Amino acid sequence: MTLRARKERFGLTGFCCVLTTCVALGAWGCSSDAERPQGTPSPAGMAGAPNLPAVTHPDPELATLGSRETTYERVCARHHADAFSTALCDAGGHPPIPDLASLIALIGLGKERAFALSGNSTSLVSKSVSALNPRLLVFPRVGDDLAPPATLVAMGFVRGEQFVEVVGHDAVSGDLNFYLVRFEQRCSYDAAGCSLADLLTEQIEHDWTTYSVYDQEDLETTPFDCKSCHQPGGYGTKLMLRMQELTSPWLHWFPQRFVQQTDSDRLLSTEFMAVHQHDTQYGGVPIAVIANALDDGSGAQLEALVRAEGFADQPNPFDAQIAKEAQSGSSPTWQARFDAHLRGEAIAVPYPGIDVTDSAKRDAATRSYGDVVQGIAPRESLLDVRDVFSADATLKLSFLPQPGADGKTVLLQMCGRCHDGRGNPALPKNLFNVRKLDALSRAQKDRAIARMQASDDTRMPPWRVGSLTPDALQAAMAELAK
Ligand code: HEC
Ligand code: HEC
After folding, report:
1. Which among 107, 111, 257, 467 is most buried, taking Cβ atoms within 10 Å?
2. Residue ending a domain, choose from 184, 209, 230
3. Atom of ligand 1 nearest to the CA of 348
4. Which residue lies with its CA nearest to atom 11 of ligand 1?
5. Lowest-confidence region among 167-176, 249-258, 281-290, 397-406
6. Is the CB of 249 under 6 A from ligand 1?
């Protein structure tokens, strides 16, 4: 049960995925640091990807930032001093990243590492995350003494999104650097784009053709803005690691099997295995490692890292008593946190219960996934396994405004994170401040009304945040018409 014991056990099991991937993808080369001798040039084709066609359906939110080589050169020219930047930029040219396991190895987390799966996230990808399609975090292992790791680099991944989130500690500035690695698959060039099966089965973890890379400065101008959550103090303050549910019982994390099985393991690991039992790996971690984990893969390990790095003080935390209170129906502590979010003061709080899913949707998605990966049903029939949230979770995770909310509350809840004046004052989006509605010009208010009504990619709020019901839209428009 001690962190040290976990460390020894994981060292024996954690590396197999990287090796198998390298063998299977010999033709693509292998970027695991064990396999690629120093100074070996990258295989042709992976580098600038000159022979690849254009992506047919690029992410519109990243369109202004360019792609592939342009992004690589821009990020590397900034000479960040963290382990990811070093691996990416200082190895003599665009290193190949043919799959997820290779990316994990490239950033130095292929062997000695910890991991945790989350069945409920309040991050950039919250709308994709449940036990059926969990978010995987991989990060350095921290001992019982909570000494910070020699190198801090961590990554987050969820299926359905063609990107990996990375953070590294900058040895020069002493601050954190955040990155988005956006990868392409073969299906990225199909006229129809990638199918649900391309994005939600194990396929998304393999056969990457090339990638683009963006850092937090690039992303601040887009809805991906890492700083909107990892820099809660606002412009010019230090960035931080996030984990609201910092203390036991780590309700939404799994496999998390200690001496006694935890409730979250009982529920979430079971739901996960029902979907992924026929996969080889999830998030680069072998399914066998997840299924047989003892002590490995838990919120406890992320807690140790977040504490060791000095981020024990989390805004809008998910306090330990919430789980206890919620057993009797409702949790006043959770409600107080949620109210702070509705006032636009903080990001949403994790769900007060363990499971965010609706049982009918969950059963249908589980069956569909199993049938498709076993070849019983055609790939085209795959249901969206992300679309499983219960009505209660949809509201409590803030994907929709509260029924009957007034216009001001709708704007604070659904726009506040990116438009509360905390960010770089040089960016126009930070001048549209929903905490100071009275100070907005008529033109700013009209632009906001137009953006909420837009039917294209410019619609606000951005889709990864949530959407407005017709009533909420009316209420927000009436407020902005004043
Ligand atoms: C909406 C808020 C939000 C945004 C935006 C966001 N994050 Fe996070 N991030 C979180 C939260 C909350 C966690 C903790 C785990 C969870 O809830 O999934 C987290 C965890 C992480 C972790 C694991 C280490 C840690 O801090 O616990 C990484 C790596 C990470 N985020 C990278 C990024 C990157 C890169 C971006 C920008 C592309 C980004 N995040 C944008 C909220 C956010
Ligand atoms: C996840 C972050 C995020 C959220 C939440 C969000 N926005 Fe935005 N918004 C942006 C970004 C990034 C831009 C700048 C890029 C652009 O114009 O698309 C922007 C631009 C705007 C602009 C143009 C500002 C100007 O004057 O140039 C308006 C108006 C706007 N948003 C309104 C809203 C409203 C209203 C909501 C809530 C209903 C909302 N946004 C929610 C990220 C967000």
Report:
1. 107
2. 230
3. 1
4. 123
5. 249-258
6. no
Buried b (16+ CB within 10 A) or exposed e, 229-251: bbbbeeeeeebbbbbbbbbebbb
pLDDT in tens, 60-86: 999 999 999 999 999 999 999 999 999
What pLDDT shows up at residue 19?
29
Residue 309 lies in a domain: no
Q: Which of 230, 260, 283 is the last residue of a domain?
A: 230
> How many CA atoms, within 13 angstroms, populate the side-chain half-sphere of residue 104?
31
Atom from ligand 2 closest to the CA of residue 414: 37
d(CA 194, CA 59): 12
| Angstrom distances, CA of residue 78 to CA of 72, 86, 218, 271, 424 | 10, 11, 11, 43, 19
CB of residue 226 inside a 6 A radius of ligand 1: yes
Residue 284 forms part of a structural domain: no
> Which residues lie closer than 8 Å to 255 by C-beta, 6 or more apart?
117, 265, 269, 290, 291, 293, 296, 297, 298
Q: Which atom belonging to ligand 2 lies closest to the Cα atom of 410?
A: 38
Residue ranges making up the domain that contains 60: 3-230
Whether the Cβ atoms of residue 208 and residue 183 lie closer than 8 Å to each other: yes
Q: Could you tell me how far CA 40 lies from the centroid of its own chain?
A: 32
Residue 359 main-chain phi, psi, to 5 deg: -65, -35
